[in-house]
Amino acid sequence: MRRRSSTTEREQASTGPGAPATATGGAPATDGRPIVSVEGVYKAFGRRPTEAVRRLRQGATRDEVRGLATAAVIDATFEVRRGEIFVVMGLSGSGKSTLIRMLNGLWKPTAGHVRIGDEELSAVDDRTLRRLRRTRVSMVFQHFALLPHRTVLDNAAYPLEIQGMDRAARQEQARRALALVGLGGWEDSYPAQLSGGMRQRVGLARALAADTDVLLMDEAFSALDPLIRREMQEQLLELQQTLGKTIVFITHDLNEAMHLGDRIAVMRDGRIVQVGTAEDILSRPADDYVARFVADVDRTRVLTASSVMVRPAAVVPLASGPRLASRTMREAQVSAAFVVDRSRTLRGIVRDADAVAAAQSGVESLEGIVLDGVAAVSTDTPLSEIFAPAAESPLPVPVTDERGRLVGVVPRVTLLEAMIPTEPVPSDDVTTEVLA
Questions:
Q1: How far apart are CA 49 and CA 51, in angstroms?
Q2: CA dist 207 → 17, 229, 278 (Å)
Q3: pLDDT over 70 (residue 23)
Q4: What residues does 216 pair with on adjacent strands?
Q5: Phi, psi dihedral angles at 260 (to 5 degrees)
Q6: Per-residue pLDDT reduced to its tens digit, 89-131
């Protein structure tokens, strides 16, 4: 499983405040502020939508207001951070597609606020809204939405033409975007000459060429066959590593959500019932619905070492002697201890028999009895990749950070317990972002 960089890492890789993402590969600055804000948003369709929202706020259910209006989105509140992939996941009818249409201003909320940066979408005039769509928000659709009479290059350059960019400049920018999605050399082809996966790449290139702050993707890969779909998911993650775009991705596929999302919002019957990382949602489902939803997920491919590691039972400094090492192992009731240097970098292990023998021989240093070559894993290693080293060693698998420092261990029993589906936690104990 390939590692996806975290939002924090993309922040550290940024070039400066306000630096825009470009089709040439510059990552945007991340200042920690949300770039998309949704606050108390309702969307109802029907004869009396405002009255329906009023009653929903008073505690009425979706079914109880059905005679007034159909409540598609109910009290949605969340923020999307600059540079993250935020996935909205839900079954058909959950309200996710309605929600994304409010994010690009196609529909106005019945109540609540949607902001892109400092712009309140429901408060701007039509001219400002058109400008926002050209410069701040672009969209990749499920069914490509390509212009059949235009070449691949002209399709990719179309949003730049709308912006008024001259032909040479927009074609050059479109060429760079097409190269990023692996379509260099196909510029003069027409959509009918491409496979479904290639046409979706053109749609993605068109969105990248527009160079907007936010990229909205509405079930963008669901029309593709499974193999091509997986390839597109991997390509999106690779592009995200390079460009650091802010992406809101809509899907009904739980595995896709878990694979792509830095954070995931789970929707049910118009409401967002939980927001968190894939690990949060798997480990601490907010309610029975979420618990059932994630029950069949392969937890070993989502959970990582950092989510199950524990404090090592016995750790000794390299500068100490075999007597201290022996006493530490005796007190912890273990047969070996991890050895670290002054910076807590893992140097190896020492076994109890070796420590006792060295102490009896009058040896005062651990240097000659430390066994190196210990198979350590990083904090973001999926559990599926830890089973092999766990099976080959009687010791817990050590977990190290990017500097090689020991930060925890994964005992074999903890690894096995992590495979057991978790029960929903009581609402008072939920520490992830849970929105009722």
A1: 5
A2: 23, 18, 26
A3: no
A4: 139, 248
A5: -95, -35
A6: 998 889 999 999 999 888 999 999 999 988 898 888 888 888 8
Measured CA distances, 158 to 132, 166, 194, 232 (Å): 16, 11, 18, 22
- Encoding tokens for residue 228? 């091509």
- Coil, strand, or helix at residue 409? strand
- C-alpha angle 60/80/226, rounded to 5°? 90
Tell which residue, 265, 219, 216, 215, has the closest CA to residue 245: 215
Q: Which sign, positive or negative, has the C-alpha torsion 234, 241, 161, 213?
A: positive
354-411 tens-digit pLDDT: 999 999 998 889 988 999 888 899 998 988 889 888 887 778 999 999 899 999 999 8
Neighbours of 163 (CB within 10 A): 13
Positive or negative torsion for Cα 242, 243, 248, 250: negative
DSSP per position, 324-389: HHHHHHHHHT-SEEEEE-TT-BEEEEEEHHHHHHHHHTT---STTT-B-----EETT-BGGGTHHH
pTM of the model: 0.74
